Amino acid sequence: MPVRVLAGNNHGQADMNTTDVTVVRVYLHEAKAHLSFLLKYLHDESKVRGVTVFRGITGFGSSGAYHSSALLDMSLDLPIVIEFYDEPDKVKSIIEELNKKIKPGHIVYWPAKINL
């Protein structure tokens, strides 16, 4: 449901239309085969508003194992973050589906607003 918000600075205010969304981040690493499945699911089946994939230079998770991009390291097992957003009800059903494929603790989400 669109909402009108006053946004501005000390010099004046301007009307801005916004709508509620839910932002989701899925934390993975390249060695897992989830990336292509997730992108296909989010694009083709769920038709979310937009997806961005971030590739980290280093990271570690619950296992404590480092995944790093050292120059001599030839493995492609770097951290990956898939971020997307859409309407809260739509995201809720997407998260329910992702929970069947992704280990617990790898999906983070929060409410946000987008400008229209």
Detailed description of the structure:
With 116 residues, this protein is α+β, with helices and mostly antiparallel strands. The protein has helices at 34-45, 88-98; strands at 3-9, 12-29, 50-55, 58-60, 66-68, 79-86, 107-115. The chain has a single domain, classed as Alpha-Beta Plaits (2-Layer Sandwich). The protein is built from two helices and seven strands; from the N terminus they run ββαββββαβ. 15% of the residues are buried. The model has no long low-confidence stretch (mean pLDDT 82).
Describe the secondary-structure layout.
Elements: E1 3-9, E2 12-29, H1 34-45, E3 50-55, E4 58-60, E5 66-68, E6 79-86, H2 88-98, E7 107-115
What would a concise description of this structure say?
By secondary structure, the protein is of the alpha+beta class.
What is the CATH first-level class name?
Alpha Beta
Class from secondary-structure proportions: alpha+beta
Sheet with the most strands?
5 strands, antiparallel
- Rg on CA atoms, Å: 18 Å
> What's the end-to-end separation, in Å?
11 Å
Shape: globular
The sequence of SSEs as H and E is EEHEEEEHE
User: Could you say what the CATH topology is called?
Assistant: Alpha-Beta Plaits
Give the number of helices.
2
